[in-house]
User: What shape does this take?
Amino acid sequence: MSEALEKAEAAAREAATDTAAVQLAMAAIELAKAAQQQAAPQHHHCEHQPKARRSAGEWLGIACAVCVGGVGIAFASIALAILGGTAAIVVLVLRSMWTDYQRKGR
Assistant: This one.
């Protein structure tokens, strides 16, 4: 019977130790919660209104403007290419005339 009593006493001591460990863990959890609440930033409400989203008509207008701008850039590029080709032809003709003038002048 004393053996059963010793086992019961050991179990009681173990339970008391476990209870203290559980109490210590609960205290740590409560301390962590309190620290988290203090560290949490205070949220304030903004007074301004969020921007309104663009309507479908505005997006359509933007798309048309981009298309017109792209066509304009394409025509400008073609004009520059024609101008460059014309300038090259003029330079070649003038060079040919200059070489002919140099040969006949001697």
In short: The two ends are 143 Å apart (CA to CA). The chain has a mean pLDDT of 82.
